[in-house]
Each structure stands twice: as structure tokens, then as C-alpha cells.
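Ticket closed. Logging final result for MYND-type domain-containing protein.
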Amino acid sequence: MGGKPKVSSKIIPLASPKGPEKLCELCQRVARLQCTECRATFYCDEEHQQADWVGIHRRICQLLVPIRTQTFLSLQRAGQIVTQQKKAELIEICRSVAQQKLSEGKHQEALPAAQFCLRCSIDVHGPNTVQLVPAYLLLAEANIGLGNVSRVAELLSQAEWSVLKSPDCGHAVHHRLHRSLGRLHMATGNLEQALLHFANDIYFASEAFGLDSTITCRGYFLMADAFAKQGKTPIVRSLYSEVTQIWHCHLTNLLENRIQNAQNPNVLLDSSYDNQSDKAQQVEVDDMLRTMLEFEQKDPRKDPAQVARVAHCLAMMWFLAGDSRKAQGFGSTALQAGQLIPNPDLTEPIQSLLQLVQSLQTEAHPSSDESQNSASA
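Final structure:
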């Protein structure tokens, strides 16, 4: 049976330690429990053990054994190099897990992975270095989702200080920092400061990835949210139109590549941004596109062309993700809106996608007549 693992099967009471006291993996309080799998990780209570297990520990439990055992750590230069390499691998695993959980809106579950990512990064790179910024930003994003604004401000202050001490750090680091600062000010209601940081986010992202990048256009979307809260609907519409145009072009190119290379079933939505998993990115992009579609559909002055483009984006995205039901649903919405305006350049691609979806559904589920004919033959 599935479900959560039994806590009692994963931990045992910690005997009176010889030497320094053991500390809880999550809160750094004095530990009284020990993981029975790796015997190198400790917790103050069962709740923190369970949270860590769900968040990250089940992914890295055995990887911690060689790093945290005294025999391994007692080796000289060669052992230290191997330890650093293994910690670098753990940083990447934790970063990937935390990012995926954040994209899925699982902020509480993302905390253990983000915290461990930061601790490992400090071990590998040292304190107050620019290499810690990605981990600070992961922790900040998790805490924004949980409403821990004061903790977010503290983490972003540390990230800013690290960036200020490294004037040669790349545009990508600046873009991510300003995006997080913008989200912090959105959470506190300081819309003008949020807009300033989102503007900087867009500038640095465009320098790093290009003005028409799907990464850059996320900044447009976040900026539109701030303008929406200010009641500036015309600006929101303009920004949403820009986001839609970029994603429509991007997904159209991916769809054309998929059709031309039908033998390759693994086309990523966007592999350029931190190598995020398909599923995590689909959740994020789906949420963004649905928000824009709902905005346009509720607007009394809704633009059928914009409705058609956004719905077409959703249809293409879910077709590429392998969900023909959602692709057909959004495709039908796009076609209905597109037929309200005489623009074959818009409606013909939608019709072609729906025909492609229909043909794949027919291949997967042949009609009863075809099945009977096949059987009789």
C-alpha cells in the first residue's frame, strides 16, 4: 500500500552522545531521535523527521552516509576532494527537488530541501559568497508561499549582500534576485517597489536570455499582477498580450519540431532555465496561462483574438505534455473565440492542432466498428 512511511520505522531514540550534542536536521535544536537508515541524521521530534523525509531525506538518505561518517572524513586531501564533489551532487539534487516542489505549490515540503541546499552550499563555497544566492532564493520563495515575510526579508538581505560583494556576478543572478525582491514587496503591499524590482528583473533577464525569452516574459506577467492590483487594466492587457505572443511563438516552434520529429516523445517545454522537470514547468506555465485566459474572459471588453491565442497556447502545451483531453478542450475554446474574427492565420493553426489531437485519439481508441472489422478479418 502507498501513503506516508511509518515514522516509527525510520527513527530510534538517540543514546546519550559522546562529544558534541547532535542537532535536529530541520531546526538545529538538540536532537533526541536518529534515522535508522543512514544513522547520520538526527531530529528533535517525529514531526520534523517526517517533514524531512517527505521533503528531501528519502532522496538523499544513503548519499549522506559516506559524507557524515568519521572514517570517510578522516581521509586526507583526496578524501576532502571527494567529499566536496559529493556535496556538490547533493546541492544539485536538493535544488532540483526544492524547485519542483515550489513549482507545484508545495512550499512546506520545499523547505527541507532548500535548507539542506543552503547548508551544503556554505560547506562547499564558504559563507557570504555569491554561490549561496540560489539557495537563499529557494528558501525565500518557500517562505513567501508560507507567509513568513520577515524570514523572506532576512534571506533576501543576505542574498543582496552576497551579490554586492561580487560585482562580476552574471545577469542571471541579478534577474533572479530582483524577481524575488519584487515578490517580497508584492507580499507586503509595496506595489511601487515591486514594480521597480520587476523592471530590473526584466532588464537583467533580457540581457541573460534575450528580450523574447520565456524566462524574461515571466517578469512581464509578475509586473502585470502589480498593475492589476493598482487597477491599471490597460497596462495589464498590454503586458498579458506580450506574454501571450512570446509563449505562442515558443510553443508553435516546439509543436512544429514535435511533428517533424515524431519519433522523439521527449520535447521539453523550456530546458534553458535551471533544467527544471517537465512536470514542474507545466504546472507553472499552466497557472500563468490560465490566469491570463480567465482575466480576458471576465473582461467586458474581452478581445476574442487574445482569448484564442491564450487558449491555443494551453492546447499546444498540453498536447506536448501528452494530455489530449486538455489539449482538445482548450483547442475548442480557442477555435470558438477565433471564429469570431476573420483571421485565418489564427484559426487555421488551431484547426490543424484539433485535427492532430483527433487523429491521435482515434489511433489510441479505434471505433467499435473498426474493432469488429479487425476481429472478423
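Strands lie at 11-13, 33-35, 42-43. No further action required.
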